Amino acid sequence: MSEFDTYTREHQTNWRRDHLQDQTPGVHNKISYPFILPRNSWQDGLWKGIQAGSVEPLSDYLQQNQIDHHTGVHNLRSSWVLCANLYFPFRQDKELIAGFLRQHVSSEIASVTDIELEYAASAPYDPKTLLGEPDGTRGKNQTSPDVAFIFETADGNEGIVLTENKFVEHSFYSCSGRKPKYCNPNSLRCLDFGKTYSDLKSQCYLLDWAEGQRQNRRYWEYLKISEHGKKVIKNCPAAMAGYQLFRQQALAEAFIESGRFSQAISSVAYDKRNETLIGCLKRTGIDTCDEWGSLFAGKAKFATFTHQQWVEFVEHNDAIGKWKNWLEYVKCRYDL
Q1: Which of 10, 29, 49, 210 is 20 to 30 A removed from 152 (C-alpha atoms)?
Q2: What angle do CA 198, 254, 145 make, to 5 degrees?
Q3: Bridge partners for 151 per DSSP
Q4: What does residue 91 show for φ and ψ, rounded to 5 degrees?
Q5: C-beta atoms surrounding 306 within 10 Å
Q6: pLDDT at residue 141, as a whole number
């Protein structure tokens, strides 16, 4: 267990003790933990400004848009809840978040027109059509970025920032095609990237799932490895710890190629203290997740930012104190 993992367990346990009345331990995998709430009390882990009955209730948004929240939302260490607490409230202040994204993601972002959790576009730009994924829903069984910021450029073109949001996770997970339950006859081939990339059709199991009655994935149709990537990549970027980033990068490229957006940026929002996550792609060939974008040669850009940078930006740019209560909450709740 990493130092950060231990710290968050202790911090969330203490926060709950000091701020919530109900101290009944919640359960995960049949084990009780003090930093997990009873499942039906998961909204106690939300900032009051997005709880039921608030001006911007998260539960109403989820129901209206048929979004499935993560199953672990009753865990006070949930990255999904952290994402909701940190970014969903700013549907009420898109100008502020546009300023942050312009500074940390792309200088071409003139304004933010929408903020969506578990984003998925409508057909024919949906994950099934673009990526060859099976039927899913926003938040379940498909590539749905945790939060998406839809923006306009100065010349009126529409773009999107697709964001994978992390908190205590150790990686971006391994490729589903390597899981034993999907009967990959030779998952070790994924660890020889030169051989795999030279003959994707025969070497990548994601392109051969139809024989097992699973729809073939189209990720590689949109992705091209850069010359730098060819020199440094050791195993398939999706194989060990980058599967979520791989799919999101493919979705960003697919949005541009299909014409849905003129610009698409794949990004990661993470806690700067989570050193395990930051370095999880070393076996792939890069020292930090910030270097992910250097592996690809495409039209989609890649960017990273930290939750600490976002909170600091709000603190320094909230001129009228509109977000004073929010700042107090997230600083106390997450020690940001």
Answers
A1: 49
A2: 110
A3: 112, 159
A4: -60, -20
A5: 18
A6: 78
Helix residue ranges, H only, 31-93: 58-64, 79-87
Which among 68, 31, 75 has a CA at the least distance from the CA of 169? 75
- pLDDT at 213 exceeding the cut of 80: no
Question: What pTM value is reported for the model?
Answer: 0.95
Query: What is the structure's pLDDT at 135?
Result: 79
Structure tokens belonging to residue 329: 């909450």
Label the pairing between strands 31-33 and 111-117: unpaired
- Single-letter residue type at 188: L
Amino acid at 140: K
| Rg of the chain taking only CA atoms, in angstroms | 20
Q: Which of 218, 21, 262 is nearest to 127 (CA)?
A: 218
Q: What is the pLDDT of residue 214?
A: 65
Q: How far is CA 175 from CA 32, 46, 147, 172, 273, in A?
A: 30, 31, 21, 9, 25
The whole-angstrom separation of Cα 321 and Cα 227 is: 48
- Dump pLDDT digits (tens) for 151-166: 999 999 999 999 999 9
Nearest-CA neighbor of 247 among 161, 159, 143?
Answer: 143
CA distances from 62 to 40, 50, 223 (A): 16, 12, 32
Q: Take residue 109 and report the two structure tokens written for it.
A: 């972002």
pLDDT, tens digit, for every residue of 137-149?
787 778 999 999 9
The helix/strand/coil state of 314 is helix
Question: Distance between CA atoms of 12 and 303, rounded to whole angstroms?
Answer: 29
